[in-house]
Every structure is written in structure tokens, then in C-alpha cells.
Amino acid sequence: MIVVRNFLVKCVLTLVVLGSLLARSVLAQQAAPGGAGEPKRYELGGITVSGARYLDPNTLIGLTGLRVGDAITVPGEEIGKSIRKLWAQGILGDVSVTIARIEGNKIFLDYNLKERPRLSKFTFTGIKKSQTEDLTKKITLIRGKVVTDALLNNTRTQVRKFFVNKGYLDAKVNILQVADSSLSNSVALRIDVDKGSKVRIHDIAFEGNNAFTDRKLKGKLKKTKERKPYKFLTAGKFQRNEYEEDKKKLLEFYNAEGYRDATIVSDTLVRDKEGLALRIRVDEGPKYYFRHITWSGNYLYDDKTLANVLGIKPGSPYSKEILDKRLNYNPTGQDISSLYLNDGYLFFTIDPVETKVEGDSIDIEMRLSEGVQAHIKDINIAGNTKTSDHVLRRTLRTLPGDKFNRELLIRSQREIATLGYFDPEKIGINPVPNPVDGTVDINYTVVEKPSDQVTLSGGWGGYAGFIGTVGLVFNNFSLRKAGTLRNWTPVPSGDGQRLALNLQANGVQYQAYSLSFTEPWLGGRRPNSFSFSLNHSIQRAGTSLDASTSSFIKVNSATVGLGRQLRVPDDYFTLSNSLSVSQYQTQNYALLPGFATGYATNITFNTTLARNSIDNPTYTRRGSSLSLSVNLTPPYSLLNPNHPNTSQLIEFHKWIFDASWFTPIVGKLVLNTRAHFGYLGNYNSNRTIGPFERFKMGGAGLGYNGGGNFLVGTDYVGLRGYDDPNSTFAIPTAQNNQSGGIAFNKYVLEMRYPVSLNPAATVYVLAFAEAGNSYDSYTNYNPYKLYRSAGVGARVFMSAFGLLGFDFGHGFDSVVPPVGTAVGTKQDPNHFHFIIGQQIR
Known about the structure:
The protein is mainly β. The chain folds into 6 domains: 2-115, Ubiquitin-like (UB roll); 118-194, Ubiquitin-like (UB roll), CATH 3.10.20.310; 201-283, Ubiquitin-like (UB roll); 289-369, membrane protein fhac (Ubiquitin-like (UB roll)); 379-445, membrane protein fhac (Ubiquitin-like (UB roll)); 453-836, Porin. It is built from 13 helices and 36 strands. α1 packs across α3 (77-88). The model is unreliable at 1-36 and 705-709 (pLDDT under 50).
């Protein structure tokens, strides 16, 4: 309404934003100055903002899109458009426009605004603390954000979806806005959740399936499972996205079995009093078979050679999955593509064409285009922010000028992963072909992960109690950069060398110090390793520090080693040699039968032949690790019949064989099978074998100090489910009054499944069955007399701390305790084992 009084015109025009047409309609109903009621053109004389308490008026005026001096029509589109622009920001609850005044041909507008409140905090009610934490991470509520209807609806949807995915299909979510008196124009959201009861799938049934049973088809639904009383570990949740993926897997299964026309006709989800019932109707169609397979376009290899590599015989069930695998990539054998791609034919293509379908038989023509051989032009590496380029390049099997080779690309990826400096799940290889000049560039991408460790290892060693290890391990050290101060951040790194400092102790009774250094590429041209280590340890039988009366054993040792990679039988083999010198001093040390006081010297030459083809040292899926290690001392007793006692100049020959195989079962589930054998012998049959370098088996394999070669070179071999060595019910050769065995054998079956492959914390669970024993003489050796056990466990690999393990084992066989054990003392067949550090055996 326009009121004219004393030549002062006041016009109040309220516009509710319902779109430009509504704005035009509202303005059209106002009487123009002079009462004509027709739209009139004005020059915009000014804009003011009222009602804005926290928003900047100048910014709001700028958002309208109007400027002083603009020509506008009243009523007209310009004002409606400006209101829509303000409304689109989502920060206002209401917008209205008032004509403040009109001076001649100039009009002055006032925008009256109502601001929306901002979010100060939010809380949940009706749910657990853990669920609150999970939801806080998932929903997109940000403190200080304007509370809009869209924000409330989105939050409500996200919260409900969270619980629906957990099986709470009846979950209800209500959001209340509560004014926050501590902050101006702010509200707190109280999100009330009523989860209701879980609704599970209690039955899955198939219709139309004749070739396969319901049970077989249910097994192909990986995520959609029915909950039964005997399936207490099955969630029975229904999630639409996972169910759609399961339907694809079901059809892939049918296709792989020859039913290429199989379809899902219908699927119905019924809600009843027991929960959800899923009904799936399938049309299997006929089963097809391969008949004639012909080849065209092949010049390098004849039809017979290609057919042998393909390995599909006429009459085999038709399977597109198997056909694709045999043509493109077969992880367990050879395929047609590798035949060409491993010989440089990067531009090779093959197209299987169904030329005839007759009854249940299908004829296939393989149409090949072999192309020309491609040579590698450039090698590019990105992502190595810490590790030097040359450390990566020296591991690659693909070099500029070489023919393209897919097998060597995969091998290069494996070599990069085994360095341990990069996330093995994110190593990228991208060949970029250059068809014009017949070359290819290889682009490698890596993501660095922490590789240095604060190492912790420990175990309960019976007599010695708990012994822990604290140390620093720099796995990517650089001695070359150590001379420059700016490289100490905190230590020079990037050249792939390893520096380790360790302290082991349980107080006064046992202490050990060690320093080791390894250069894996001595000279930088070939993978010839160089290593050295220094060790000092002391073990006291009591806590006395009096050198004249205390009982102790001291060990000082030094080792230097050289190793190299072999080319025959293949380049997975390595040969390493080392020479170590150890000096032992004992005083009244009764724990070593036959050698209580005196000095002993051990000069040992070690040679180890090993083959390692595992794909990932953190969580291995496939490959194997084999090693044969031989330790030899000089044969003093053969060279000199008057050779002193073996406890003074130690002589022995020691053989250890370790084998570990990794086999993928299904998905990420991996079977690890291991076998370990050890044998300690002497050169002179007339001499007894001394107390040094023996084997003790049992427990977590940590022994006294959390590792092997403790004190007198004893090798500690784990056997879960039984007591640690030197305990009352330890395996007989590992009991307190025994030096250890001179032979052992051990067998392990272990199923592993990853929970998380995050490089910051890789976690996997395992179930194991193992058996082993150690023997005090050759006459008592019996490979069938084994102590058996089984159990479950978990491993956590953290970059900063290494491998942490926790196992529960049950021993099936009884152990005879030593003479003098209190009557009534019983063996506990159940044991928990805590492991810190990688265990070899």
C-alpha cells in the first residue's frame, strides 16, 4: 500500500520468496505512484539492510546483485531475482523488501532479513558411546555452520542409514533444536535415536535352480547371509548395495560353470514376524560347452603352441571367466597375453569372437594382432619423498633400452614392496605406450610409509623372569649423508642401509647391548650386502655384583658378513657368508652343566643359502621362503689329537633348515605352511657335544631375551601351547637342568586373514596347528614323537614398534616334569603367549 502525505511517499512492499513469478505477482498488486497500478522504471538510489545482527550488511548488499544507479522496474523481475540470490546462500530464514522512499525518479530499498542460527554443538541420546563416536566421524555436522532444513534432513538421513546398515530397519531419528544461551544466534542439536530391535535375514530360498542346490548358491552370496541359531557369528544384515554385488557374484558363478544365459528373474524381500525372508528366482538356461577354437592373425606362434598355452579342451564347460584368465592374466600359470607381453609385444591384442552357437556348443575364433616389439624409453618414479631415487632404481628389473616385459614389471613391483619403505597396497605401475616410435615409458608411483622403529620385544623366560628389549632400528639409514648436519632430521635417511641399537635387560640379573649395521648394496653396483655387529651380554645367577663371589656368564662377540644375489637357479636365491668370534667367561655358573667356571672361545663360519619369493613382508599372500644355514667351527680335535675340552675351544657343526610357503585360499585368506629342522654335530665321535649352540623349544620362542642366540648361542624355537624354556613343565630338553637339544623338528599350519591392511597398523588374525620336539641325543631322535598344539591369535604390525602378537594355544600332550617337582603339581595345557618382534621359527 502506498500512502502519500505532505509530498513524502512511503511504500511498504513485502516479498516472500516463492520464485520470480510470485515476486512479480506480489509487486503487480501494489499501486504504482500516482495510482496507475502499472510497472514503472526507477533508478536505484540506495540499498539498506535491516535485521542483520551478525552478517556484514555490505556483503549482503553485494549478494543481491543490485548496484546503485541500476535501472529497475517496480513491480519487476530485478527485485525477485535479488531475493532468490540471497535465499540461495542458505544463511537466511526470511527475506522481505520495503520501499523506504521515492525521490523523483530514484527509489530506495530496504532488505529486512532474519538470520538462521548457527550450530554450536550436537549430542546423541539413546545410543552407546562407541556408536556416538562412529556417528560423529560419519555425519557432516560442523560447529559454526548455519542450521538449515537441508542440514537437518541430511543429518537425519545419515544417522538412520547408519543404523539400517547395522540391521536396525525400524530406527527412528528425531532432531531437536535447543537455543544455546552461551553463544549468540546459536543452537545445539539434540539427536534422539530410537534404534528399535535388529531385523535379520532368517531365511534365504531359491527357486528355479536345478543345477545347484540352495546351499551351494547361498555360499556365493558373500555378504548377504541368513542368521540361524547355529550360525551365531553371522550378522544376517540386509544391505541393498552389498546385496546387489552379491547378485552379480551369483551370476558370475553361473557363467563360470557354463550357464552363460543365467539370469535372476525376480527377488523378493518379505518382512514377517521372524525378520526378513529373501526369495530369489533364477532362470539357469542351458549349459554351454567349448567346441572348436581357431586362431587367426598369429605369425610368431603356431596354433598348436597357442592352444597348449590356452589349455581349454573341446567339451570343457563354457566359462567367460576362465577364457579371460587364460587370455589376459593367469596368476597361477601362463596365459596368451604373457606369451607376447613378456617378449616385448606391448601393442598385442586378442579378441575372442563367438562365431557359432549350435545347440549347447560354442565355436570361438581368436583374432590376434601381434604388432611390433616395444622398447622401454624412460623410467619415471614419483612419490619417494624420503628414499633416494637410486635405491628404487637399483631394484627395478625394467631398464631403459630393454624390451617391454610384463613379468619383469610385476617382479619390480614385488622388489619395491620387499624394501619395506613403501605402502605395498599403493605401489602403482603405469606403462605409457608411444605407438609412433614403438617405445613405452614406465611410470612408477609409491607412497612412503614410516620404516624406522622403536623396537620392543620381550618374554617371560622362567628362571630369568621377564626380559625386555628396547632399541632403535633405522631401516632406511644413510651413512653417506651423515656428514652433513642438516640431514639429521632426526637421522640421515634414504639410502636403504640398516642401523640397529639394542638394549636388553631385566635389571641386574641380565643385560645385553648390541650394535649392527647393514649395507645391502656394497659399492652400489650389485646387490652384494655387507654387515657387521658387536654384542656384549652378562647373565648373573643371582643379584650379587661382587666379581669374586658372584655367579655369572659374560659373552663378547663380533660378526662380519658378506652376501650376494645369485642368478642360478634363479635370482630369488641369495648366498651369505659370515665370520663370528665369541668369547665366553663363566664363574660358578651352574646353569651350564659341565662348564661352570672358565673361558671358552667360539670361532664360527656361517654360510646360508636362501630363496625368498614372498610378495609382501608385512602380510604375505603368496610366495615362499627357504633357507639352509650351516655353522662350522675349525675341527680342532681332528687337527690336533691333544685338542683341549670342547668347552674351551668350542667345536661343532650346526645345520638348520627353514621352509615357509604361502598359498592364497580364497580372497585374502592365506594358508602358511612351515617346516623347521635343526641338527648339531661334532667332528670327533669320541668327544661329547658341549653346552653351546643347542636348541630349546617351547612357548613363544623368545627364550630369556626375546630372541635366539642368547648367552651360549642357544636357538630358541617356539611351540605355542607349552611352557617357555626353563619352566617346570617345559619340554624335557628345555627344562632348567638341561642344556638343550642337539636336534629338533617342527611343523606348522597357520590360516591368516587380514582385518586391516593400513600401513600404519596392519592387523591380521590367525588359527594354527603345530607340532615339534627337540632331542638330547641322536639315539633318542624320533621325528614322530611330537608335542602337538592348536590355537588362535592375532598380529599387529605398527611402523613405529614392529610386530606385536598375541596367541592362545592348547597343548594336547603331557610333559614329564623334572625330578624333585612337588607332588600334585599339574601341567596347564592352556597358555597365552605375548610376542613382540618377528619370530623365525
